[in-house]
Amino acid sequence: MSAPIDRRTFLRGVGVSLALPYLDAMTLAQSAKSAAPVRTAFLFVPNGVNMASWTPTSTGALELSPTLQALAKVKSQINVVTGLAQMNAFAGADGPGDHARSCAAWLTGVHPFKTAGSDIKLGISADQVAAQHIGKLTKFPSLELGCERGGTSGDCDSGYSCAYSSSISWRGPSTPNAKEVNPRAVFERLFGNGNSAEEAANYGQRQIARRSILDFVLEDASSLINRLGARDQEKIEEYLQGVREIEQRLANFEKQNPVAGVAEVPKSAPQDRGEHIRLVGDMMVLAFQADLTRVCTMMFANEGSNRPYREIGITDGHHDISHHGNDPSKLDKKQQIDTFHVAQLAYILEKMQSVKEGAGTLLDNTMLVYGGGISDGNRHNHDDLPLIVAGRAGGKLKSDRHLVFPSQTPMNNLFLSMLDYVGVDVEKLGDSTGKLQGLF
């Protein structure tokens, strides 16, 4: 049997701090107070979806649509939700700009002030409401991740600032949270310890000697493992193996993009979009597993992104394809991109499901929302949004269903319910009208 250890135990070395996953020994140390926490994640995809291939044909018990087939292994952990809307993403008197508005409103439920200047104005996002209340419990109040860099100024959509189309996380009306798109930078941030000089020196040593970050915590790790029972030892070994696997994948693509200084963190990211999404997703899973944060946002791409998907043989721009005009060829390509995105989601969910926590898994102790702020990219509509809610919120969330809510039900009602289940009691968020009934 394991000896009791504190939930905030870290493995430490010079310039390195490795948090631990949830262990049985932590329950022994703090009893019920140490129950695995519930995490919230919000994963965003741009340009709408091919709704005919996305939406299940029946309600109630979930039957996966063609686009969602990759989720078969985690079907018992997901709900497909139809009918929710972000009405403040629709045009008012300010005219065009649906892409920027859809991104800005997705987690806020607020209509953005139209400007391409510095006088941006929106509202606080659901993730940051959670971070303000529970962020003090972890090393990072929240993580903001992505796969495309964004700007905070300039015109990116019909007079709307680039900040609106590249940020879903907002600390306040004029403060979007910058997302990190470099997987190596995220890795170093999660496991860095000490001042920047110490962290840079540690990174330089690892690069010169081709050493792992684990080499710097071996003494601490060996001492800890000897105090743990067999089940916890297995969890630690799996966790450390996962960290090492990510290091190796980072090293593989960095060999192709060397930097001038050994202590300089590469600024590049994998050219393969799937590997980029998976690596960033792995960082989120590690951060949740080690309780470094309980709140995360991740953008697969910026809203309006026109990047081609050569990984699956599509050379046309994504945004151009989304304006399909009912062209069968474009609709087919749109479904291929949607299916590709869902496959990356499936990878992340399966990884979370593989992490054991107490009597369940990391996915059991998560509420993850996946979707976007546009339904049909050709129509630019913001009702009937494509949404998946995954995980069981610590046993509070039913799953394996297709739930259809009345048309134009505020999506922020979902967020109010999610906040409630992580201990954040707020009466109003954006255009919410009350908690969403029937999901929990």
How would you portray this structure in words?
The mean pLDDT is 93. The chain has two domains: 1-35 and 188-268, no CATH class; 36-181 and 272-440, Alkaline Phosphatase, subunit A. Strands 4-16-5-15-14-3-11-6 form an eight-stranded mixed sheet, sandwiched between helices. A two-stranded antiparallel ribbon has the order 1-2. A two-stranded antiparallel ribbon has the order 7-8. 34% of the residues lie in helices and 15% in strands. It has helices at residues 24-30, 51-54, 98-105, 126-134, 162-166, 183-191, 196-209, 218-225, 230-254, 273-289, 318-322, 328-354, 411-420, and strands at residues 10-13, 16-19, 39-44, 60-61, 78-85, 143-146, 155-157, 160-161, 170-172, 175-176, 295-299, 356-357, 360-361, 366-371, 387-390, 401-410. With 440 residues, the chain is α/β, with parallel strands linked by helices. The protein starts with 9 loop residues before the first strand and ends in a 20-residue tail after the last helix. A hairpin with a 2-residue loop joins β7 (155-157) and β8.
